[in-house]
Write a structure and sequence with these properties.
Blueprint lengths: L2 H5 L6 H7 L25 H13 L4 E4 L2 E2 L8 H17 L5 E4 L2 E3 L2 H8 L10 E5 L9 H10 L3 E5 L11 H9 L3 E5 L9 H12 L5 E3 L5 H13 L2 H4 L10 H13 L1
Parallel strand pairs: 1-3, 2-4, 4-5, 5-6, 6-7, 7-8
Enzyme class: hydrolase
EC number: 3.1.3.48
Catalytic activity: O-phospho-L-tyrosyl-[protein] + H2O = L-tyrosyl-[protein] + phosphate
Length: 266
């Protein structure tokens, strides 16, 4: 019995799995998720990581850039803590004959902590030189544009995670344009096109899609509740058609992943 046939054995929700099979393959790479075990509010154990990854395999994803939070005083991760969790997960996948490839970066909160990482050039950078950043959901980060510029001055390319989820921008659409004009790319959470985060988030996401504003797409998967919601989104929406107004760059990450792998081998 091969890997994928095992996934379609007896069990819960197999009809949904069959209906959703392979429908995220067009993305090639999931560049925002919390699959590394035990270091933030995502997967809590190697077993949970494996279960989530195996389900994402069914949806067509086998390459992942995992992006655990780096948030001062909440999830104070470092390159070392992330690398340790990454190595443990890769070894666990190999032991369980899972064909997925995992790379590690981070989702950096725009706070005082990121200033120190920038000063030391210790950001957790994605293959291709991208740096994923986020803001608080409660209030905008006044240092956002300075952070964007500081990241660029290091030679990296900033990506703002899930801009549709920042409620304070929902009635200030010009802010999205200003962020893009500053050279910061935008990343959509797939669950945002449903009502998972609320009607206003869905409306904003669809407006940004229609305007061609998004550059990347991520699952932002943390746990089984996210997974179940994602399976329903994938079944319900023709995602590739929905996103055709945007030039989605996820597939371009493949070349960068291959370059990263070549460096490791060399």
């Amino acid at each position: 019995m091969n890997f994928f046939s095992k996934l379609f054995g007896k069990g819960r929700n197999n009809t949904l799995k069959v209906a959703s099979f392979g429908k995220l393959r067009f993305l090639e790479v999931d560049m925002h998720n919390h699959l590394l075990p035990g270091i933030d509010d995502g997967a809590e154990s190697l077993e949970q990581s494996l279960a989530l990854i195996s389900s994402l395999n069914v949806l067509g994803l086998t390459k992942f850039i995992s992006t655990p939070h780096i948030i001062q005083d909440v999830h104070p991760n470092t390159k070392n803590s992330i690398d340790s969790a990454h190595q443990k997960l890769c070894a666990h996948l190999e032991r369980n004959n899972n064909p997925s490839t995992i790379y590690a970066a981070a989702e950096h909160m725009v706070d005082e902590g990121i200033d120190r990482l920038i000063d030391r050039d210790e950001l957790c950078v994605m293959p291709g030189g991208y740096v994923l950043i986020e803001m608080s959901y409660l209030a905008p980060s006044h240092g956002l544009f300075k952070t964007i510029l500081d990241i660029q001055n290091l030679g990296y390319k900033p990506i703002l995670a899930h801009p549709e989820r920042y409620n304070y921008y929902h009635f200030e659409f010009e802010m999205y344009k200003k962020i893009k004009d500053a050279g910061c790319l935008l990343q959509l959470n797939l669950l945002s096109i449903s009502r998972y985060y609320g009607v206003d988030v869905k409306s904003t996401a669809l407006t940004l899609i229609k305007s061609g504003m998004y550059d990347f797409v991520g699952t932002d998967l943390h746990h089984q509740k996210h997974l179940r919601a994602l399976e329903h989104v994938v079944e319900k929406y023709p995602l590739q058609d929905v996103l055709k107004t945007c030039k989605i760059l996820n597939p371009t990450l493949l070349d960068h992943l291959h370059e990263t792998e070549a460096v490791r081998v060399g």
